[in-house]
Amino acid sequence: MTILKSREVILLGAILVLVALISTRFIGFIAPKNLVNVFNDTSPLIILALGQMVVILTRCIDLSVAANLALTGMICAMINVAAPGLPVSVIIVVAVSIGAFLGAINGLLVWKLDIPPIVVTLGTMTIFRGVIFLLTDGQWINAHEMSTAFTGVPRGVILGIPVLGWIAIAIVVIMALVMSRTTLGRAFYAVGGNPHAAVYTGINVGRTQFFAFVISGALAGLTGYLWIARYAVAYVDIAGGFELDVVAACVIGGISIAGGSGTVIGTLLGALFLGVVKNALPVVDISPFWQLAISGAAIIIAVTFNSRAGRTKGRVILKSAEVTQ
Amino acid sequence: MSRTDPQAPHHVSRHIPDQLRSSLERKLKSWETLLLAVAVGIFILNSFASPYFLNAWNLSDATFNFTEKAMIAFAMALLIISGEIDLSVAAIIALSSTIMGVVMQAGFGTPVIVLAGLGAGLICGAFNGILVTRLGLPSIVVTIGTMSLFRGISYIILGDGAFRGYPADFAWFGQGYVFWVISVELVIFAILAVIYTIVLHKTNFGRAVYAIGNNPTGALFSGIRVQRVKMILFLLTGLMSGLAAVCLTSRLGSTRPSIATGMELEVVTMVVLGGINILGGSGSIPGVVIAAFVMGLVTFGLGLLNIPGIVMSIFIGLLLIGVIALPRLWVKIKG
Fold it and tell me: In chain B, which residues have their Cβ closer than 8 Å to the Cβ of A191?
């Protein structure tokens, strides 16, 4: 199959080896119930990484996703506190809209004012976090203040998998369709692959990047609600530093930071790889203090492998010619 | 992210870097003038906002808000001009500080502790540099990885503990004063500002840094050892992070693995605010110096008004986007 390029197969193999290694230390890890838990725990990372993938494909980066998540989640929680009777479906629509709006701010600054994405999202990242503090004065919103319907949705179980997991699966399917079956999806690749050529084929580069930020923002907003509801607590620092995990998942999954290449399946596997590493450490009795160093090392190793696999062979001809002479 | 302008064709004709020197210089000058005006404005606002502001000791205290970050920002400025970035600087501070703690616990005195801190920074910089220059990995990705790795090693060594009990004379670096209110850190900052200004603006090395940032292939063909220059820049950034770790640890008098969390983004903010192009190729050290003062004044002034740190960050974020957006908006409206 053409979708399963070698990189994805290698990554899948790495995940399977990892899981096998973990199961030699703790057999319970490969119990289906535990694997479902790992997938469920990784779901927010998967959803955010898919949004980040689109942004990175267009040669941008979105460092504001975790702050967007925290701000949107906090607003959802505040709405829930103010109007406990409001149906969760409305809250989800609100979450996606707020997230998309925050993403649109990033997108407009990049599109209309030509400000480098890393600068824009560095700025909005700190602004969004600060706004949460302004809204709440640093107060937490705790489980007992939220309605049971609000916190119940992501935890409900359908066919053995929590709703949070199902939402991640749905997003994976939707994103796979968007990237492979729509002109917008193709435009993302075109803009990142060669912006000059993209312009000549009639694609508006800035607008395409704008849409990438809106998608990333909308997914961050959705995850904001899911995160707050699942952990039943909202505060300023929630998901602090998570933006780097999200970028790392993309990079492990083979999304080229230079734009234009990468797949939905790769991103999914990249997020799962990071998720397995993080979930396995406590169960195999490794001190939690090792977690940061191990995930850092995993990122570096994965990136090194990826870049080896992805290196173009074009110039080797010249070298071998030199050698044979 | 990438060197090429994503907006492509319609821009190529009117945005060619590396030439039209006089206009580039004018632009840089106006950037620094703009920043200076912002700094003066904030200074005046501050003195109106709080009666406690215009006090020599208060102003001296305010410098600690930026001196440590600025030490790193100088090296980071060169790195960003060359088209790379180092997001692991705060993690290097954590690891350097931890190594200093280990050395201190082993019973060594201040000179060895300081050398250990600087050496640890240098080794971390070398690790980043090797991954970027030898393996050809993108620096933003490498340093996201080493950011977790370096800080992770600190957590492994320290757990949830802390190192305390640094020797009394070690406190000189972060708490000492050279003359009246002029702190040791401020003097280090000033000396580094001069050195980096000379290195970037008056030497062949500085010229090479600009050349690499504008066109790495062109730089290579004009005889510049691109990878070696980049390696030196990563070493320099590591060393400066080690130096910042010495000052910060000395000032706080203790080491925790969570030390300097999030500082990498403040350093990048300072560099970008200083007019360094995040895509590489242009910017100046005086700009970074003024940006350091601007950030220090903003946080200090807001602090005097009892505004919490996280709200200050809104102002820093708005300042960052605003200062960069305004000239572009102006050009758009004018053109």
Answer: 6
Domain ranges in chain A are 43-247
pLDDT at A105: 95
Decide if A290 and B152 are in contact by the 8 Å CB cutoff. yes
* Record: contact B155-A60, CB cut-off 8 A: no
Say whether pLDDT at A40 is over 50: yes
Task: Report the distance separating Cα A299 and Cα A271, nearest Å.
Answer: 11
Residue showing tokens 């910017």: B283
Residue in B145, B147, B278 nearest the CB of A118: B278
| Of A59, A196, A294, Cβ closest to residue B152 | A294
Domains of chain B with bracketed CATH:
55-334 (1.10.3470)
Place of tokens 């920002």: B73
Alpha-carbon distance A289 to nearest alpha carbon in chain B (angstroms) = 5
- Report the half-sphere exposure of B45 (CA within 13 A, side-chain side): 15
Q: Give the C-alpha separation, A166 to A163, whole Å.
A: 5
Q: Which of A207-211, A291-295, B324-328 has maximum average pLDDT?
A: A207-211
What ipTM score was computed for the predicted complex, to two decimals?
0.80
Q: What is the DSSP string of B250-276?
A: HHHSEE-TTTTTTHHHHHHHHHHHTT-
Closest among B117, B126, B86 to B99, alpha carbons compared: B117
Give the tokens for residue A134. 């302004």
Which residue do the tokens 């779901």 mark? Answer: A43
Backbone angles phi, psi at A203, to 5 degrees: -95, 130
Taking an 8 Å cut-off on Cβ atoms, the answer to whether A300 and B10 are in contact is: no
Q: What is the pLDDT of residue A308?
A: 64
CB A140 within 8 A of CB A235: yes
Q: Does the beta-carbon distance from A290 to B156 stay under 8 Å? A: yes
Q: How confident is the model at residue B1 (pLDDT cuts 50, 70, 90)?
A: very low
Residue B148 and residue A287: Cβ atoms within 8 Å? no
pLDDT above 80 (res B70): yes
Nearest CA in chain A to B314: A127
pLDDT at res. A177: 93
Among A62, A64, A120, A126, pick the best mutation site for testing chain B contact (most B Cβ within 10 A).
A126
Q: Give the chain B residue whose CA is nearest to the CA of A129.
A: B310
Dig out the tokens for B243 from the structure.
Answer: 């130096």
pLDDT computed for residue B27 by the predictor = 60
pTM, full prediction:
0.85
Cα distance between residue B186 and residue A129, in whole Å: 31
A286 reaches B (C-beta below 8 A): no
The pLDDT assigned to A5 comes to: 55
Residue B303, pLDDT score: 82
Cα(B278)–Cα(B262) distance, rounded to whole angstroms?
A: 19
DSSP conformational letter for A260: S
Contact B131 A304 (CB under 8 A): yes
Residues of A in contact with B135 (CB under 8 A): 304, 307
- Cβ atoms of A91 and A150 closer than 8 Å: yes
Whether residue B132 contacts residue B233, with contact meaning beta carbons closer than 8 Å, is answered with no
The per-residue pLDDT for range A221-243, each reduced to its tens digit, is 999 999 999 998 888 888 888 88
Q: Which residue of B has its CA nearest to A291?
A: B152
**B317–A124 CB contact, under 8 Å:** yes
What residues of chain B lie within 8 A of the CB of A58, using their CB?
6
Strands B163-164 and B177-179 come out as: unpaired
Sign of CA dihedral A105, A106, A110, A115: positive
